[in-house]
UniProtKB/TrEMBL annotation, chains A, B:
SUPFAM superfamilies assigned: RmlC-like cupins
Name by which UniProt lists this protein: glucose-6-phosphate isomerase
Species of origin: Biomaibacter acetigenes
Listed pathway(s): Carbohydrate degradation; glycolysis; D-glyceraldehyde 3-phosphate and glycerone phosphate from D-glucose: step 2/4
GO CC annotations on file: cytoplasm
Domain Glucose-6-phosphate isomerase prokaryote, first and last residues per copy: 49-179
Keywords, in A-Z order: Gluconeogenesis, Glycolysis, Isomerase
Top enzyme category: isomerase
Gene Ontology biological-process annotations: gluconeogenesis; glycolytic process
């Protein structure tokens, strides 16, 4: 072990999820327009504005098997058509690595699936921790009309992110609003 | 990978740190009387009562290199003599594994040291995350006179706990109250 990492702390605001000390990575609609199933609606919105869908922190923890990467994720309230604002979602490059998410504010779901076709959705609410086992792709979805969905996440720092699989194939399921409430539907564009 | 672990969630109360679904592991003064430096004071207290010092959750996550163990830790307010209530503290058995603690309530410190004799203390306050790098023993200390210190922790699930080294040798440093505020002092009983 050559890298020298001293203990450190970092401040997050429990109300906004944001840190004063560090810059968040931001994902706007233009960064993920193809990931919402109503691509026409996404295109319409982009003619006038480019809403911030979510942001999250990368701490720059050394990517070793013994380190833990962590940070907060903030998914903003909103919809593209009837599909809620969400993260891109990803598998871990080291597929056999898990992750835990601890919700501190908001209301939503963690949508998950395996390469073998299993799927699952677990609810986020303040104080709820969701465990994403090894092999499960995961996407956070904010179903509140007003509040950000704020989670604190931790995973093995060498896990890596495979965004490409989801960008190409999509998730098998979507969570959309129907009659004012969230429902899970088959992804009409899943391939 | 043979164990089959489905996604799951678990509820913690953000005000108490406790879960309604799961039983916490409790540590009373009688479980750790020798760990406070004023053992005489600890003995006096134990004649009349056995205060709950801290509790924490173990989720029963499979202890593999790809899983993440997590839970909340609640250290109650109080002192033994002038030494604040604290956790036993431990090294990880797999020494080259890190841990992250995310404070959701209270005020305190994470006291840390390496086998080589380095030490460090990082402050806990709501929203602060403390990173415990590989090789660092760690102990949570509550310096609030009234509030519990509540943290959410995550570490590699196969890390294991070596409590024995600290039970035998102690930490090199202690955090005690002096003139109404916390100060770091040398541990008079460190061996
Ligand atoms: Mn992940
Ligand atoms: Mn630990």
């Amino acid at each position: 072990m050559n890298e020298i990492l001293r203990p450190f702390d970092i401040d997050f605001d429990l109300t906004t999820g944001l840190s004063r000390l560090k810059k968040a990575s931001k994902r706007y609609l233009s960064n993920m327009a193809d990931m919402f199933y109503d691509t026409e609606k996404a295109g319409d919105i982009l003619k006038n504005e480019d809403p911030l869908i979510y942001e999250f922190y990368e701490m720059g923890i050394p990517e070793t098997v013994g380190d833990i990467a962590f940070g907060t994720s903030i998914v903003y309230p909103g919809k593209i058509g009837n599909e809620y604002f969400m993260t891109k979602g990803h598998f871990h490059t080291v597929l056999e690595t898990a992750e835990v998410y601890f919700c501190i504010k908001g209301k939503g779901y963690m949508l998950m699936e395996t390469p073998e076709g299993q799927w699952d959705a677990q609810e986020f609410a303040p104080g709820k921790a969701v465990y994403v086992p090894k092999r499960w792709a995961h996407r956070s979805i904010n179903v509140s009309p007003t509040e950000p969905l704020i989670t604190f996440f931790a995973f093995r720092a060498d896990a890596g992110h495979d965004y490409g699989t989801i960008e190409t194939k999509g998730f098998r399921k979507l969570i959309v609003e129907k009659d004012g409430r969230p429902v899970v539907i088959d992804n009409p564009r899943w391939s």
